[in-house]
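Reviewer comment 2.1 asked that we show a complete input and output for one of the modelled complexes. We chose the magnesium ion case, as it is the one discussed in the main text.
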Amino acid sequence: MKGESKLEKKQFRAESKRLLDLVINSIYTNREIFLRELISNASDAIDKIYYKTLTDENLVFNKDDYYIKVIPDKKERILKISDTGIGMTKEELEENLGIIAKSGSFAFKKEHEIKEGFDIIGQFGVGFYSAFMVADKVTVITKALGSDEAFKWESTGVDGYIIEPCEKDSVGTDIILKIKENTEEENFDEYLEEYRLKYIIKKYSDFIRYPIKMNVTKRKLKDGTENEYEEYMEEEIVNSMVPIWRKNKNELTKEDYENFYSEKHYGFDKPLKHIHISVDGTVRYNAILFIPEKIPYDFYTKEYEKGLELYSNGVLIMNKCSDLLPDYFSFVKGMVDSEDLSLNISREMLQHTRQLKFIAKNIKNKIKNELKNMLKNERDKYEIFYKSFGRQLKYGVYSDFGANKELLQDLLMFYSSKEKKMVTLEEYVDRMPEEQKYIYYAVGETNDRIEKLPQIELVKEKGYEILYFTEDIDEFAIKMLMTYKDKEFKSVSSSDLGIETCENEKDSNSEYEGYKEVFEYMKNVLGDKVKDVRISKRLKNHPVCLSNDGEISIEMEKILNTMPN
Ligand code: ADP
Ligand code: MG
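Response of the prediction step:
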């Protein structure tokens, strides 16, 4: 290149060198995010020009003039990212690209005291250098708003950079990456592939507010033929721009949400319910959450990862942020977007901040309320939900030493002997006769089997309702609850049922006398298997039943015995 020898190569400052090394080798775990970073910078540059037009009456912002274009050239191994943003002066090139960890965008926000309405993403001043993860050489050609001169910045990484004047017609910036050659272990070709670039843009930058254009290959029928195709190039806008979560709820239909659910691959089913949240308080955030209808195929495996997608200003930060969901709501799918998050430098993980905790708590309550509403107003839907995920709620009651029982107890349902369908604890308690002391339940493998249990006869005859527990977790959860609306739970196989007729079981000495020998004999035969053999008044049609004295029921014992120590 002419005159290059005369140019003095400037060195990055020493600390910058070390930092650059860090950016290239350690900060990011995922190489593909370089595109997210460069597109975010382009979007920031357009935001800035937009801001200028608002504050300078000599300028107009014509929406169609502002876009980002991604242009791969496989033959030359060049990937170009162009924008029509504010550009950089020579000084700004020096400042922003010559000093690592210096963010012109951060300074811009400060200087103009921009708080709301703008989505400027930049803040750390390192994203740009992520380009060196995929490129041997990075060239920036830029012309600043209001300047007649254009400049070129070029660098091959740690050995420094040059800046020289160059030609550029319009205001804006081109970032030109010379993509690395493949090595034995690493493939860089993919960053020149149309479909791969499109995928990366969709994944991270789908909701950038300005159009991201690409020339894409299309196929059409050749003129005059019926099955011969020819390829042609067409410019396409790759990103969807306006995130659905920033739209007004009233403008969105059920289908819009369902499409979003399937586009995002949250599940193959249709969601049972969506929750659209916009909070504009101390921590601002938008969220769209879904309650799926069906259990994800891997839900009860170790592979299942709970979590919500997390966006910061429309840019994807994390695929599955697990801190946003408690375990008992792990079935919830969806996303959260907030402009108030404290990100760490790679923007891959965020610090465990107050803001995040606030959002998580908020979300938890919204989900609970939504489920409560569903239970109240859309009972059929709720029962479908409960069939899929009720177990999860019961685990929620049981885990953390019952810390969440208040939150979850009203959402529980069990099959009722009386109603022959699922009922809530509230419904049970509300129709309890006054003299009934306890909430009765019976444990068994299926409802049919429970129906045949001798132990339920007396309670049933008394006219009391019995809840059927057919899942392992049921009795454990209820033990954690202990009471519901001050009513204790009582297993029908417990020795003290709190019902008059059997109150005196233990004292039925007179009757016992006559059968003493039989009972002694039975006890001997059964040995350790039983503690005592007694006469019972709870039986109606059955000759015998098991009952237990202690806290742990026979069924719980069975489960505990199957657990690994
Ligand atoms: P950050 O975006 O966090 O500020 P970067 O390393 O990504 O950090 O970018 C550093 C700075 O370089 C930006 O703050 C901005 O001032 C400037 N810059 C980068 N890319 C562009 C661009 N396409 N147009 C204008 N300025 C840019
Ligand atoms: Mg940036």
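Residues 37, 40-41, 122, 127-128 surround magnesium ion (ligand 2) (CB under 6 Å). We note this here for comparison with the apo prediction described in Section 3.2.
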